[in-house]
Structures are given as structure tokens and as C-alpha cells.
Amino acid sequence: YAQGIAGPRWEAHLIASRRDHALETIGMPVHLYQGGLDHHVPPAMAREMARRLPRVTLREYPDEGHLSIVLNQFPQCAADFRAA
Prior knowledge:
Elements: H1 6-16, E1 30-35, H2 43-52, E2 56-61, H3 68-72, H4 74-83
Parallel strand pairs: 1-2
């Protein structure tokens, strides 16, 4: 935050803002990765998104958190993107 909080504040605003599109209208493949120990994004949110997205792959990792999933499961994520 050495350069101020304008950037993080704007990002928080965007995250909390209402969206004008429905998840059901997203036609491209979507990959969701969810950690069971994530305290920022509850697993129920990922499951609800997966339920509404027409072309989704949801991978749940019960022992991962919000950031550890990126570090520990990156090979699987990269493989999914290469395959897509």
C-alpha cells in the first residue's frame, strides 16, 4: 500500500458490485478451483457458480486455502488450460 489504497479500494468495489449478466449466459468453458479451507471465498459459492454455469469444470481441494491452491495445485490448473 506504499502507493495508496485507491487500487485495492476500486477492486473491492468491483468485486462487490452487481453484475448485469447471468452466469447461465456464459457459453465458453469455465474452470473453477476451490479450496475447502478458503476463508475468503466459501466453497458454497463455487458450487453455486458451478451449478449455474453451463460449461464448467469444478475442482475442489478440501485441504487448500485461498492462496495455497494456486501454489500447490498449479500443475493441474496448467494442464486444464493446456487441454482447453
